[in-house]
Amino acid sequence: MPLLEIRNLSVAFDTSAGLFHAVDGIDISVESREVLAIVGESGSGKSVAMLATMGLLPETATVKADVMRFEGRDMLAMSPQERGKIIGKDISMIFQEPVASLNPCFTVGFQIEEVLRRHLGLRGRDAHKRAIELLELVGIPDPVSRLKSFPHQMSGGQCQRVMIAIAIACKPKLLIADEPTTALDVTIQKQILDLLVSLQIEHGMGLILITHDMGVVAETADRVIVQYKGHKMEEADVLSLFENPQSRYTKALLSALPENAVGDRLPTVADYDFEAEIR
Protein backbone atom coordinates (compact mmCIF):
# COMPACT_ATOMS: atom_id res chain seq x y z
CA MET A 1 0.00 0.00 0.00
CA PRO A 2 1.48 3.42 -0.97
CA LEU A 3 2.09 5.95 1.77
CA LEU A 4 0.23 8.52 -0.33
CA GLU A 5 -2.04 7.61 -3.23
CA ILE A 6 -3.82 10.16 -5.43
CA ARG A 7 -5.81 9.30 -8.55
CA ASN A 8 -7.25 11.63 -11.18
CA LEU A 9 -6.53 14.85 -9.29
CA SER A 10 -7.87 18.02 -10.92
CA VAL A 11 -7.61 21.58 -9.66
CA ALA A 12 -9.37 24.55 -11.25
CA PHE A 13 -9.41 28.21 -10.21
CA ASP A 14 -12.36 30.52 -10.70
CA THR A 15 -10.98 33.63 -12.41
CA SER A 16 -12.52 36.66 -14.09
CA ALA A 17 -11.79 34.97 -17.43
CA GLY A 18 -13.48 31.71 -16.36
CA LEU A 19 -12.13 28.45 -14.97
CA PHE A 20 -8.38 27.96 -15.18
CA HIS A 21 -7.36 24.29 -14.97
CA ALA A 22 -4.02 24.19 -13.15
CA VAL A 23 -3.99 20.41 -12.67
CA ASP A 24 -5.82 18.10 -15.05
CA GLY A 25 -6.32 14.48 -14.01
CA ILE A 26 -2.94 13.39 -12.66
CA ASP A 27 -2.03 10.37 -10.51
CA ILE A 28 0.61 10.55 -7.78
CA SER A 29 1.83 7.91 -5.36
CA VAL A 30 4.84 7.67 -3.06
CA GLU A 31 6.11 4.91 -0.81
CA SER A 32 7.73 5.13 2.60
CA ARG A 33 11.51 5.68 2.33
CA GLU A 34 11.14 6.75 -1.32
CA VAL A 35 12.20 10.04 -2.91
CA LEU A 36 9.73 11.08 -5.60
CA ALA A 37 10.64 14.08 -7.74
CA ILE A 38 7.90 16.06 -9.48
CA VAL A 39 9.56 18.06 -12.21
CA GLY A 40 8.46 20.59 -14.80
CA GLU A 41 8.74 24.26 -15.68
CA SER A 42 7.01 27.01 -13.72
CA GLY A 43 3.23 26.85 -14.15
CA SER A 44 3.10 23.09 -14.72
CA GLY A 45 0.97 22.51 -11.61
CA LYS A 46 3.61 20.92 -9.39
CA SER A 47 3.05 23.08 -6.33
CA VAL A 48 -0.71 23.32 -6.84
CA ALA A 49 -1.06 19.52 -6.76
CA MET A 50 0.76 19.34 -3.43
CA LEU A 51 -1.08 22.32 -1.93
CA ALA A 52 -4.34 20.57 -2.88
CA THR A 53 -3.14 17.49 -1.02
CA MET A 54 -2.33 19.63 2.02
CA GLY A 55 -5.70 21.40 1.83
CA LEU A 56 -4.00 24.79 1.57
CA LEU A 57 -5.58 26.19 -1.60
CA PRO A 58 -7.90 29.23 -1.47
CA GLU A 59 -11.67 29.01 -1.72
CA THR A 60 -11.48 29.99 -5.40
CA ALA A 61 -9.98 26.55 -6.11
CA THR A 62 -12.11 23.53 -6.99
CA VAL A 63 -10.33 20.30 -6.10
CA LYS A 64 -11.55 16.93 -7.38
CA ALA A 65 -10.03 13.47 -7.13
CA ASP A 66 -11.22 9.89 -7.46
CA VAL A 67 -8.85 8.78 -4.69
CA MET A 68 -6.78 10.64 -2.11
CA ARG A 69 -5.48 8.30 0.57
CA PHE A 70 -2.77 8.61 3.19
CA GLU A 71 -1.75 5.31 4.81
CA GLY A 72 -4.96 3.87 3.42
CA ARG A 73 -7.13 6.54 5.06
CA ASP A 74 -9.55 8.40 2.80
CA MET A 75 -8.57 12.07 3.00
CA LEU A 76 -11.54 13.11 0.88
CA ALA A 77 -13.94 11.77 3.52
CA MET A 78 -12.18 13.52 6.40
CA SER A 79 -13.58 16.56 8.13
CA PRO A 80 -11.34 19.67 8.24
CA GLN A 81 -10.60 18.85 11.90
CA GLU A 82 -9.57 15.27 11.07
CA ARG A 83 -7.40 16.43 8.21
CA GLY A 84 -5.85 19.10 10.41
CA LYS A 85 -4.56 16.41 12.77
CA ILE A 86 -2.59 14.87 9.89
CA ILE A 87 -1.34 18.00 8.15
CA GLY A 88 1.73 19.38 9.89
CA LYS A 89 2.21 16.20 11.87
CA ASP A 90 2.19 13.14 9.59
CA ILE A 91 2.45 15.18 6.37
CA SER A 92 4.63 18.29 6.37
CA MET A 93 5.62 20.74 3.68
CA ILE A 94 8.61 23.01 3.16
CA PHE A 95 7.59 26.02 1.07
CA GLN A 96 9.47 27.87 -1.66
CA GLU A 97 10.23 31.14 0.12
CA PRO A 98 11.50 30.49 3.66
CA VAL A 99 11.55 34.13 4.75
CA ALA A 100 8.00 34.71 3.49
CA SER A 101 6.78 31.48 5.09
CA LEU A 102 7.99 32.41 8.56
CA ASN A 103 5.99 34.94 10.59
CA PRO A 104 8.11 38.10 10.97
CA CYS A 105 6.34 39.04 14.21
CA PHE A 106 7.43 35.98 16.20
CA THR A 107 10.78 34.52 17.12
CA VAL A 108 12.08 31.35 15.53
CA GLY A 109 11.73 29.58 18.87
CA PHE A 110 8.06 30.52 19.25
CA GLN A 111 7.25 29.24 15.75
CA ILE A 112 8.98 25.90 16.28
CA GLU A 113 7.43 25.42 19.71
CA GLU A 114 3.98 26.30 18.35
CA VAL A 115 4.07 23.15 16.19
CA LEU A 116 5.23 21.08 19.14
CA ARG A 117 2.42 22.42 21.32
CA ARG A 118 -0.28 21.86 18.72
CA HIS A 119 0.58 18.37 17.55
CA LEU A 120 2.60 16.80 20.39
CA GLY A 121 1.28 18.67 23.42
CA LEU A 122 4.79 19.75 24.46
CA ARG A 123 5.05 22.90 26.57
CA GLY A 124 7.51 24.85 28.64
CA ARG A 125 10.92 23.27 29.12
CA ASP A 126 10.04 20.17 27.10
CA ALA A 127 9.10 22.24 24.04
CA HIS A 128 12.15 24.49 24.49
CA LYS A 129 14.51 21.51 24.75
CA ARG A 130 13.03 19.87 21.65
CA ALA A 131 13.30 23.14 19.69
CA ILE A 132 17.00 23.32 20.52
CA GLU A 133 17.46 19.71 19.41
CA LEU A 134 15.72 20.47 16.10
CA LEU A 135 17.94 23.46 15.35
CA GLU A 136 20.99 21.34 16.15
CA LEU A 137 19.67 18.61 13.85
CA VAL A 138 19.37 20.99 10.88
CA GLY A 139 22.83 22.42 11.47
CA ILE A 140 22.15 25.88 12.91
CA PRO A 141 25.03 26.98 15.18
CA ASP A 142 24.38 28.34 18.67
CA PRO A 143 20.76 27.11 18.69
CA VAL A 144 19.97 28.41 22.18
CA SER A 145 20.49 32.04 21.19
CA ARG A 146 19.04 31.51 17.71
CA LEU A 147 15.68 30.56 19.22
CA LYS A 148 15.38 34.20 20.29
CA SER A 149 16.03 35.50 16.75
CA PHE A 150 13.39 36.87 14.40
CA PRO A 151 13.39 35.67 10.76
CA HIS A 152 14.80 38.98 9.43
CA GLN A 153 17.84 38.51 11.66
CA MET A 154 18.78 35.27 9.87
CA SER A 155 20.14 34.51 6.40
CA GLY A 156 18.05 32.84 3.70
CA GLY A 157 19.86 29.54 4.25
CA GLN A 158 19.28 29.70 8.01
CA CYS A 159 15.58 30.49 7.49
CA GLN A 160 15.31 27.48 5.19
CA ARG A 161 16.87 25.31 7.89
CA VAL A 162 14.34 26.67 10.38
CA MET A 163 11.54 25.73 7.96
CA ILE A 164 12.98 22.23 7.74
CA ALA A 165 13.15 22.06 11.54
CA ILE A 166 9.47 23.02 11.76
CA ALA A 167 8.54 20.51 9.06
CA ILE A 168 10.30 17.57 10.75
CA ALA A 169 9.40 18.59 14.32
CA CYS A 170 6.76 15.86 14.64
CA LYS A 171 8.75 13.25 12.70
CA PRO A 172 6.38 13.20 9.69
CA LYS A 173 5.90 10.12 7.59
CA LEU A 174 5.76 12.22 4.41
CA LEU A 175 7.75 15.39 3.74
CA ILE A 176 6.96 17.60 0.73
CA ALA A 177 9.75 19.99 -0.28
CA ASP A 178 8.62 22.65 -2.75
CA GLU A 179 11.64 24.09 -4.58
CA PRO A 180 13.57 24.07 -1.28
CA THR A 181 16.73 25.65 -2.73
CA THR A 182 15.34 28.23 -5.20
CA ALA A 183 16.37 31.39 -3.33
CA LEU A 184 19.73 30.08 -2.10
CA ASP A 185 23.24 30.26 -3.54
CA VAL A 186 24.82 27.14 -5.01
CA THR A 187 26.86 26.17 -1.94
CA ILE A 188 23.86 26.43 0.40
CA GLN A 189 21.67 24.57 -2.13
CA LYS A 190 23.93 21.54 -1.89
CA GLN A 191 23.93 21.66 1.91
CA ILE A 192 20.12 21.87 2.08
CA LEU A 193 19.61 18.98 -0.37
CA ASP A 194 22.13 16.82 1.48
CA LEU A 195 20.34 17.64 4.74
CA LEU A 196 16.93 16.69 3.33
CA VAL A 197 18.16 13.38 1.97
CA SER A 198 20.00 12.51 5.19
CA LEU A 199 16.89 13.29 7.26
CA GLN A 200 14.74 11.26 4.86
CA ILE A 201 17.02 8.26 5.27
CA GLU A 202 17.44 8.68 9.04
CA HIS A 203 13.71 8.97 9.76
CA GLY A 204 12.47 6.63 7.01
CA MET A 205 10.22 9.30 5.52
CA GLY A 206 8.67 9.44 2.12
CA LEU A 207 9.98 12.57 0.38
CA ILE A 208 8.30 14.43 -2.49
CA LEU A 209 10.72 16.89 -4.05
CA ILE A 210 9.18 19.55 -6.30
CA THR A 211 11.77 21.03 -8.63
CA HIS A 212 12.59 22.22 -12.13
CA ASP A 213 16.26 21.29 -11.75
CA MET A 214 17.05 18.03 -13.56
CA GLY A 215 20.47 17.93 -11.90
CA VAL A 216 18.80 17.79 -8.49
CA VAL A 217 16.50 15.03 -9.79
CA ALA A 218 19.45 12.95 -10.98
CA GLU A 219 21.24 13.24 -7.63
CA THR A 220 18.36 12.67 -5.21
CA ALA A 221 15.30 10.95 -6.71
CA ASP A 222 14.30 7.29 -6.90
CA ARG A 223 11.34 7.97 -9.19
CA VAL A 224 10.25 10.95 -11.29
CA ILE A 225 6.95 12.43 -12.48
CA VAL A 226 7.23 14.96 -15.32
CA GLN A 227 4.43 17.54 -15.58
CA TYR A 228 3.49 20.04 -18.28
CA LYS A 229 0.53 22.43 -18.12
CA GLY A 230 -1.13 20.39 -15.38
CA HIS A 231 -0.74 17.06 -17.18
CA LYS A 232 1.50 14.14 -16.33
CA MET A 233 3.74 13.62 -19.34
CA GLU A 234 5.81 10.74 -18.01
CA GLU A 235 6.61 8.69 -14.92
CA ALA A 236 9.67 6.46 -14.53
CA ASP A 237 12.48 5.49 -12.21
CA VAL A 238 15.26 8.05 -12.36
CA LEU A 239 17.73 5.90 -14.33
CA SER A 240 15.18 5.01 -17.01
CA LEU A 241 14.07 8.62 -17.33
CA PHE A 242 17.55 9.91 -18.05
CA GLU A 243 18.66 7.00 -20.24
CA ASN A 244 15.46 6.49 -22.24
CA PRO A 245 12.91 9.32 -21.88
CA GLN A 246 9.60 8.55 -23.58
CA SER A 247 7.92 11.96 -23.71
CA ARG A 248 9.02 14.66 -26.14
CA TYR A 249 8.66 17.13 -23.28
CA THR A 250 11.02 15.13 -21.06
CA LYS A 251 13.51 14.97 -23.91
CA ALA A 252 13.25 18.75 -24.26
CA LEU A 253 13.89 19.25 -20.54
CA LEU A 254 16.97 17.04 -20.71
CA SER A 255 18.24 18.75 -23.86
CA ALA A 256 18.12 22.07 -21.99
CA LEU A 257 20.81 20.93 -19.53
CA PRO A 258 23.97 23.10 -19.70
CA GLU A 259 26.12 20.29 -21.10
CA ASN A 260 23.86 20.15 -24.16
CA ALA A 261 24.51 23.73 -25.26
CA VAL A 262 25.25 24.22 -28.95
CA GLY A 263 27.75 27.04 -29.32
CA ASP A 264 26.57 29.91 -27.13
CA ARG A 265 22.91 28.87 -27.28
CA LEU A 266 21.12 26.46 -24.95
CA PRO A 267 17.96 24.72 -26.24
CA THR A 268 14.80 25.66 -24.34
CA VAL A 269 11.40 24.01 -24.00
CA ALA A 270 9.99 27.04 -25.80
CA ASP A 271 11.57 25.65 -28.98
CA TYR A 272 9.04 22.80 -29.01
CA ASP A 273 5.28 22.33 -29.32
CA PHE A 274 3.86 19.77 -26.89
CA GLU A 275 0.15 20.46 -27.25
CA ALA A 276 -0.41 17.27 -29.25
CA GLU A 277 1.03 15.20 -26.39
CA ILE A 278 -1.51 16.42 -23.86
CA ARG A 279 -4.60 16.08 -26.01
TrEMBL record:
Its main location: membrane. Keywords: ATP-binding, Cell membrane, Membrane, Nucleotide-binding, Transport. GO terms for biological process: transmembrane transport. Residues 6-254 form the ABC transporter domain. The keyword Nucleotide-binding applies. It is a peripheral membrane protein. This is ABC transporter ATP-binding protein. The lineage of its organism: Bacteria, Pseudomonadati, Pseudomonadota, Alphaproteobacteria, Hyphomicrobiales.
